[in-house]
Amino acid sequence: MDETRAPFETGPASLETVPASLESRPPREVSLFWRTFFLLSLLLLGCILAWLQTFRALEFNPRSLQSARQLASMVNLSRAALVNSDSIARVSLVKTLADEEGVRIAPREPGDMYRPYNEDSLSRRTSELLQERLGDNTIIAREVNNKEGLWIGLNIGNDPYWLQIDPSRIELVAGTTWLIWLGTAALVSLAGAALIARLINRPLKSLSFAANRVREGDFQASQLNESVATSEIRQVNIGFNRMAQKLSKIENDRALMLAGISHDLRTPLARLRLETEMSVDNLEAREHMSADIEQVNAIIDKFLDYARPDHLEASRVSLNEVMEAAIFAMGNPPDVIVKCVIPEKTVVMGDAVELHRVFSNLLENAQRYGKDPITAVVRIDIAAKTKDGSVLIKLRDHGSGVSTEMLEQLTQPFFRGDASRSSATGTGLGLAIVERAIARMGGRFALANSSTGGLSAHMKLPLAK
C-alpha cells in the first residue's frame, strides 16, 4: 500500500503517513427513492411538454383563425348595418347592439389612450389575422382610457369609432390560464411519481434493513412479510427469511461447537500438563513438552478468537487504558522497546476485550518479526490522533518489513509471509483476527511498509461522542 496521506502530528510514529485506503471516503450515495422519483419526474415532465407542444400545434392556429373570423364578421356586420341605416334607426341599432349583443360603439378621439391587444401569443396572433382581414390601419386594443375589454378601432364612413366587444364571446383565453393548467398537471404528475417511487422503494428498504440486521447478528428482527400482494417481492421475502433462519442455525451450531472445543480440548491438555510435570524426570524434556502444550493451547485460543461471532455491542472504551494493559501484558523483555504517545482521555466506540486482543496480537507480531536487523532490538512505536470523528492509530516496528506483493495477503487466514516472518510457529491467524475485530467495531484496518523500514499497522476507529 502506498502512504500518501498527511502524517501524524505527534508521537514517535509521526514520520509515517496514513494509507490511502484508510482515509478514503465512500462515494456520494443517492437513495433508490430519489433516483426513481427523479427519472419518473423527467419522464412525466417530458410527456407534459410534448403534450403542450402538440396541443399548441393542433389548437393554437385554428383557434386564432376562428377568433379572427368571428371578430371580423362582427365588425363588418356592425359597420354595414350602421352605414346603411338612417340617423333615427342608427340610434336604435346602437342601443340594440349594446343590449343584445354586448357590442358598444363610441367615437374615437385623437387623444384616446389605449394599450395594444398583445399580452400573449394567442392575442398577438389573433390581432395579426384580424388586421389582415380588416386592414392594416385597424387598431386592436385591450384597454382604452383605463377601460378594459376588446377594443377595435375602425372607420364608419369618414368618422373614427371604437367598437368594444366582450373577449369571452370569442373564447380568447389568457396565457396565465395555460400556465395554471400546466403547473397543476406538473404538480399532480410529481405527486404521482413520488407515490410510485415510494411503493417501489418500500420493499427494497425493508430488505436493506433486514440485511443489515442479519449482518449485525440479529436474526430475529430480520423477518420480512411473506404475504405481500406482489408475487416477485413475496418470493424474495420468503427466500430471505429461509436464508436468515439457516444462518441463525449455523450461528447457534458454531457457538455450541466453540463451547465444546473449549471444554473438550482444554481439559485433556490440562491433565497432560499435570502428568508431564509429575512423570517426566528430565528437566529439559519436561520444559519442551510444557512448551508444546502451551503452543497447542495458544493455537486453540487463536482458532476460538477467529471464530467468534460477528455481533458486537459497541460501548465507550478508553484507548489509553487498553493500550497500557496490552503493553503491560507483554512483560518487560530486555530486547523490546515500546514508545507510545496517545492523547490523554482518548475514548473510542468498541469493545475493551476485543481491543485488548487486537493490540496484543499486533504487539506479539511486532515482537516476533520486528527486530531491527542492525541492533537486534525490537523497537515498537505507537501513535494516535483524532480526525473527522475518528481515531487514527498506528503501530509500527523497525524490522525488515515484507514484500509489496504480500501486504494484502497478510490478513488472510492461515497465511504467513516470507521465511523471515514465519520462523516462529503459529497459526497465521493473528492479523486476520485483528482485521475481523476492527471491522466488528465499525473500524478499518490496513498494513503498509514504512519508508524508513519495518511494517506499520494502521487502524481507524469511531471516536466516542
Write the CATH architecture name of the largest domain.
2-Layer Sandwich
Looking at CATH, which topology of the largest domain would you report? Heat Shock Protein 90
Instruction: Report the total helices.
Output: 10
Radius of gyration: 44 Å
- Looking at how many chains there are and whether they match, the oligomeric state comes to single chain
Count of folded domains: 3
InterPro entries: 2C_sensor_his_kinase (IPR050980), HAMP_dom (IPR003660), HATPase_C_sf (IPR036890), HATPase_dom (IPR003594), His_kinase_dom (IPR005467), HisK_dim/P_dom (IPR003661), HisK_dim/P_sf (IPR036097), RisS_PPD (IPR032408)
Enzyme class: transferase
EC number: 2.7.13.3
Transmembrane segments: 32-52, 178-200
Q: What can you tell me about this protein's structure?
A:
The protein is of the alpha+beta class. It has a five-stranded antiparallel beta sheet with strand order 3-7-6-5-4. A five-stranded mixed beta sheet has the order 9-11-12-14-13. The chain has a two-stranded antiparallel ribbon with strand order 1-2. 51% of the residues lie in helices and 18% in strands. The protein folds into three domains: 173 residues, Histidine kinase-like ATPase, C-terminal domain (Heat Shock Protein 90, 2-Layer Sandwich), CATH 3.30.565; 147 residues, Sensor histidine kinase RisS, periplasmic domain (Beta-Lactamase); 93 residues, Helix Hairpins (Orthogonal Bundle). The longest helix has 52 residues. The N terminus is likely disordered. One of its GO terms (molecular function) is ATP binding. One of its GO terms (cellular component) is plasma membrane.
